[in-house]
Amino acid sequence: MWLQQRLKGLPGLLSSSWARRLLIGLLLFLIFYWYLGADRGLRFFSGSVKSGGVAGQCLQNEIHRWKSLVDRGEGIYSTPQEKVDTPFVSGNGHILVDVDSNKLWVASSSQPGSAPVHQTEYSPIVGVHLPGKRAEAQATMLWFRKGAVLSVRCVLPATLQSARDCVTIREEFIAHRSLPNVYLQRIHINNPSDRTATLEVSPETPSFGSKFSASVEKVEDREFVLSSGRVLVEKNHIVLVVVATKKLNSRIQVLAKSEYADNVLSVVWTSEPIESNKLEETFAKLREGAKKELGELLRANVDDLVLHHQQAWMDLFISGVEMRKITDSHTPSSHTVNTTLYYILSSSTAPLLDRRLVSEERAHLESSLNYADHCFSGHATMHAENLWPERVSSAAQILQLVTLWTLTLQKRGCKVLVATGAHGVMQGMVLSFGGLQFTENHLQFQADPDVLHNSYALRGIHYNQDLINLAVLLDVEGKPFLHVSVKPQEKPVQLYACEAGCLNEPVELTSEVKGHTFPVMVTQPITPLLYISTDLRHLQDLRHTLHLKAILAHEEHMANRYPGLPFLFWFSVASLITLFHLFLFKLIYNEYCGPGAKPLFRSKDDPTV
After folding, report:
1. Over 90: is that where the pLDDT of 506 sits?
2. Could you give the C-alpha distances from 587 to 80, 387, 470, 580, 600, in angstroms and in order?
3. N or C: which end of the chain has fewer CB within 10 A?
4. What is the pTM of this model?
5. What whole-number distance in Å separates Cα of residue 535 and Cα of residue 541?
6. Which of 141-155, 252-266, 318-332 has the lowest mean pLDDT?
7. 496 Cβ neighbours under 8 A, 6+ residues apart
8. How far apart are CA 492 and CA 466, in angstroms?
């Protein structure tokens, strides 16, 4: 009763102009809040509290240029607002620097296939801090194609309040790709304020009880820190580690409206697993080697070192996997694929980049890379979630993933590729993703025809000194087709290709930009969808050796494989509908036409009228 009375009074309440304005304002607020979303709306109204205050505003300006790289799939970053549970590491197969935990991992062997599986107690990162700070915000980025971890910190001094006065500390952490013993930390400090900023440098010195000891020494009138330690491995053996690092001053003064830059070079030398009676002799050799290499590095141009490192990583990523359109939840995303590739390459040595490699050995490795006999055998790994994990949360999990990939490639005919190092591992992973396999005379694409609803590209496949790009694309009707292109080279391309069954004359592949397209044909029994070979006659003869029962277009194959619901189901549904209508007709007939039925229209003589 009370509610009824209140509802009756509602029109009178809304007749008031101020009530209508209040209601309209409330509706607009709710729409605005819903449009922003709960999290974004709260951040919008809470302002600087949510974004980290003045330091957070400065940080957003610094990381703005990272967003385009992340959108292109070239990296990932973590900020106070968008935290990513992913290890930020830089490695080269000999060493692995975990920036998050400030730990150094080393390998006990330089042979291809080995990984830096031993965690040391050495902390490789030199800390740079501003004492008496009011606020600080930090973001970190993992840049795949440059093989580096970038860090930006915006620090607001205690005596200042404006975002324009924030001191910016940019750092770059690099485990050099072509110099396996070298680790580099680049530091750049910008002080836009009107006051001098004094920062403290805190190198991580070994703690009491640590297996590492440190001493300050000189090489060519330059001071450096020489740290020595050990790692216990299986069978009571010991891996010795010696690190020589350029020494920085304990304080850095950055004048008002000026910048400061420096580079911390480190050299990491490790031994093979040895027995305890060889400690002193091995330590002496490692120390001398580390001192000598550091002396050479201190005379080198650091910008050139960084450029060579970046070029080496870009050469590795000439090959790779590009995800274009994903239509199911089981196919890994572009982020997952690129992250996995980077982690595996960071933990793999690259002997082809070693300048000390003799020409005969280099030629042997390159020949193995250009024709990977019988790699990759078996089904494609595209949907193997343990090989392409969506989430990796620690350096230890990275090394477990490396072990699994190495074992998988070796057991699937890619042992020769693994022996060539990071370049071969990349080739093996690309071949395995799409189900590509080398045989004695050709390269065949044996993907499952039932999973071609996803669009992706495999680039930089080495074959006879040529680089092949193979893509699975979808036309406007959603039907898959294959696109093949060859990277232009100085020498003319001599490659031929034909689709499943090879009934049509093989097509000569050229280095034209538009490439070549092939229809997806499915044979009975199932055979590869595409063949590529340097031997034209081989492909012409191949059609006579396949012994096929039928060749279907992809849509015909899918229609036969998934014809829909069986005839009995539809017959049952039609029968039920028919019986229901017959039953309904019988009820109506009995009501108006059966015995004792009432007339449709009443007469005037009816006494009930």
Report:
1. yes
2. 71, 64, 66, 11, 15
3. N
4. 0.83
5. 10
6. 318-332
7. 506, 507, 508, 509, 532, 533, 534, 535, 536, 539
8. 10
